[in-house]
Amino acid sequence: MAVKKSSKKPNVSAQELQAYYHDMLLIRRFEEKAGQLYGMGLIGGFCHLYIGQEAVVVGLEAAAKEGDKRVTSYRDHGHMLACGMDPNGVMAELTGRIGGYSKGKGGSMHMFSKEKHFYGGHGIVGAQVPIGAGLAFADKYKGNDNVSFTYFGDGAANQGQVYETFNMAALWKLPVIFVIENNQYAMGTAQARSTSSPDIFTRGAAFGIPGEAVDGMDVLAVKAAGDTAVAHCRAGKGPYILEVKTYRYRGHSMSDPAKYRTREEVQKMREEKDAIEHVRDLLLTGKHATEDDLKAIDKSIKEIVNASAEFAKESPEPALEELWTDIYADDASQTA
Amino acid sequence: MTKSNERKLTIARAMAEATAQEMRIDPSVFVMGEDIGPLGGVYGNTRGLIEEFGAERIRDTPISETAFIGAAVGAAQDGMRPVVELMFVDFFGVCFDAIYNLMAKNIYFSGGNVKVPMVLMTSTGGGYSDGGQHSQCLYGTFAHLPGMKVVAPSNAYDAKGLMTAAMRDDSPVVYMYHKGLQGMGWLGTEAGATVHVPEEPYTLEIGKAKVVREGKDVSIVSCGMGVHNALKAAKTLEAQGVSAEVVDLVSLVPLDRDTIRASVAKTGRLIVVDEDYMSYGLSGEIIASVTEHDISVLKAAPKRVAFPDVPIPFARVMEQFCLPNPDKIVAAWDEMQAA
C-alpha cells in the first residue's frame, strides 16, 4: 500500500502552518540543546533524542482535543513538548534536578503530567501499550469521547504484549490510536532484519483493527491521518492503527554512534525529507510567512530553549530526603 | 458452637462482600481478570458480583495478563480503582513487567504526579498436589520490590478489612490470599480461617501485624496459612508447659517490625514459619529485623520453618514433606532447647 501524502496545495491556514513550524522547531532545538548538555556531562544515563521525527507528534497533537491522553516510550521529550508540558520541567528532569517533572527521580525516560494528560515516558520496550489501552478504557467507562494516543516504535511492534492489547482493545472497542512510529531501526537493527513484513499496520487486520501507513515526514499528512483515526475512535468504533513512517537522524541514544547505517542514508533523509524544511517551504512559497517572521519564531524558540537549559543547570539537586517520598501515594514507607 | 449474633464467612465470601460494598459507593471501582465474571473466580472471591454489577464493571478478560494488568495501571492513573486478579501468583512470570516496572514504580517515577490505586489479588499456596506452577507463595518475590504494598490475610475478618483498605488505598496493593483458606469445598479448607465478619464495611490498617495469641516463652511469626499452623503448634506446646506467642503479620509490606521486635523482646525466642521458599525470603527478613535491631534480646538462635529450596513437587508424599506444619514448628522448639 502506498504511503499517504498530503496534496500539493494543502488546505491549511497560515496560523496552523506557523504553529506546526514553531512546535517542530521547538522540539528540534530542545533536543539539540539536550544533546549538548549530555556532551557536557550534565545529563546522565541514556538519552534518546527525537530529532527527525518531529512531524509525528506535532501532526497528531493537532488532531487532539483537551482530555485526550498520550503515552509513549523512552523517546519521549518531543511528546511532552508537543502536548504543552513546560520545557523547563522537562530539561530539569534530564539533568536530575528538583525542578524536573519527577523531582529528578524519573529522568529522561520517566515523566508524567496529569495536567497535560501525559502518562509517561516508559523504559521497557512495548510496556506502555497496555497502559494506553487502560487509559482508553477509563475514558470509555466514564462515558466521555476522549481518545488515547498510544505511541510505540517499529521495534516494540515485535513485542507480544502489543498483540494481547490489540485483541483486548478491539474486543472492548476501546478508543485507542496505536501510533507506530516506524523510524526504520529497532535500536540498531534495520526493519528488514527484524520484522517479517514491511507494513506493520496490516497486523491489526487479524483483530479487525483498521490501519494505514502515513508519511511521517509530512506534518500535514500526519494531521490528516490523525483526524481520520480520531473520528473513528470518537465515534465508538474501537481502536485504529497509524503506522507513521519516519526517520531518526541521531543514534538510538546518545551512546550510539549509529554505525549500522551509512552517513549518506542519513544525509539523504535530512536533505530531501526533512519535516521542518518541508513546512518552511510551504510557509515561504505559499506566502504564509516571510523570512523575518520565521526568524522571529527561531529567536523566540532559542530563548525558550536557552532558558530551559539555564533552569536545568540552576535548579538544585534533589535533597536525599526525597528518596523516601512518592514510593507510595501516602507517606507509608518500608524502612529497616 | 456458633453464637446467635455470629456471621461466619469464608475468606472468599468476605472478599466478595467487601468488593460489592465498595462498588456500591464508589463507581470508579471495577474488577477485571480471568473468569471473575459468571464463573465467580476460581477461588470464589468474586462470586455474585456480576449479578449485581453487570459485565461492564465485572470484566472477564482474555488470557492476556500483561495486557490487562498493564491496562489496569493505565486506568488507575486515570482516576479508576481497578481490582485485578492474577489467577495464580505463579503466573507472574508472564506479566511481571507490568507489575514491578509499571504498577510499582510509576508513582515514584512521576514524583507523585500520578497515583496508582489498584488492587492486584492473587492466589497463593499449595498442599493439594497441583504441581510447581500452581502452588507457590512467592511472598518474598513480591515483598522484595519497593513500591507495592503486600497483604496476606489469615482469616475472613482480616480479609474483609484488608480488601476494603486496599481498594481505598491510592498505592498499588498486592493482595495474596491462600487457596487453602478460601473455604472452597473442592479444595478443602482450614476451619480457623472462617470466622465472624461484621456486615458493615470496615478497614484494617495495612502495615499492622497482630498478636493473635499471647505467650511468654517463644514468638512464632507467620502469615496466611502459617498462622494456623503456628496456632496448632502453640496448643501442642501449651500441653508441654510452653507458652507460645503467635504473631500474624497480616501485611508483608509495610512490615510491622515494631510488633515483631516487641514480641521477641518479651519471649526471647523466635521461630518464623513461611510457606515460601527458605532462602532470600520472608523468614530471613523477619530474623534480620530482630537481630539487626537488638541481638541481646535473644536467648537462643532463631529458627525457620520454611519451604526448602526446591521446585514444588507434585507427588503428595514429597510436597507434604516440604510444607511447614505444626509438628515441624514443635520440632523447631525442641531443637532450640537442645542447642
TrEMBL record, chain A:
<dbReference type="InterPro" id="IPR001017">
    <property type="entry name" value="DH_E1"/>
</dbReference>
<keyword id="KW-0670">Pyruvate</keyword>
<dbReference type="GO" id="GO:0006086">
    <property type="term" value="P:pyruvate decarboxylation to acetyl-CoA"/>
</dbReference>
<comment type="function">
    <text>The pyruvate dehydrogenase complex catalyzes the overall conversion of pyruvate to acetyl-CoA and CO(2). It contains multiple copies of three enzymatic components: pyruvate dehydrogenase (E1), dihydrolipoamide acetyltransferase (E2) and lipoamide dehydrogenase (E3).</text>
</comment>
<dbReference type="InterPro" id="IPR017597">
    <property type="entry name" value="Pyrv_DH_E1_asu_subgrp-y"/>
</dbReference>
<dbReference type="GO" id="GO:0004739">
    <property type="term" value="F:pyruvate dehydrogenase (acetyl-transferring) activity"/>
</dbReference>
<keyword id="KW-0786">Thiamine pyrophosphate</keyword>
<keyword id="KW-0560">Oxidoreductase</keyword>
<dbReference type="InterPro" id="IPR029061">
    <property type="entry name" value="THDP-binding"/>
</dbReference>
<dbReference type="Pfam" id="PF00676">
    <property type="entry name" value="E1_dh"/>
</dbReference>
<dbReference type="InterPro" id="IPR050642">
    <property type="entry name" value="PDH_E1_Alpha_Subunit"/>
</dbReference>
<feature type="domain" description="Dehydrogenase E1 component">
    <location>
        <begin position="23"/>
        <end position="320"/>
    </location>
</feature>
<comment type="subunit">
    <text>Heterodimer of an alpha and a beta chain.</text>
</comment>
<protein>
    <recommendedName>
        <fullName>Pyruvate dehydrogenase E1 component subunit alpha</fullName>
        <ecNumber>1.2.4.1</ecNumber>
    </recommendedName>
</protein>
Automatic annotation (TrEMBL), chain B:
<dbReference type="InterPro" id="IPR029061">
    <property type="entry name" value="THDP-binding"/>
</dbReference>
<protein>
    <submittedName>
        <fullName>Alpha-ketoacid dehydrogenase subunit beta</fullName>
    </submittedName>
</protein>
<keyword id="KW-0560">Oxidoreductase</keyword>
<dbReference type="InterPro" id="IPR033248">
    <property type="entry name" value="Transketolase_C"/>
</dbReference>
<feature type="domain" description="Transketolase-like pyrimidine-binding">
    <location>
        <begin position="9"/>
        <end position="184"/>
    </location>
</feature>
<dbReference type="Pfam" id="PF02779">
    <property type="entry name" value="Transket_pyr"/>
</dbReference>
<dbReference type="InterPro" id="IPR005475">
    <property type="entry name" value="Transketolase-like_Pyr-bd"/>
</dbReference>
<dbReference type="Pfam" id="PF02780">
    <property type="entry name" value="Transketolase_C"/>
</dbReference>
<dbReference type="GO" id="GO:0016491">
    <property type="term" value="F:oxidoreductase activity"/>
</dbReference>
<dbReference type="InterPro" id="IPR009014">
    <property type="entry name" value="Transketo_C/PFOR_II"/>
</dbReference>
<keyword id="KW-0786">Thiamine pyrophosphate</keyword>
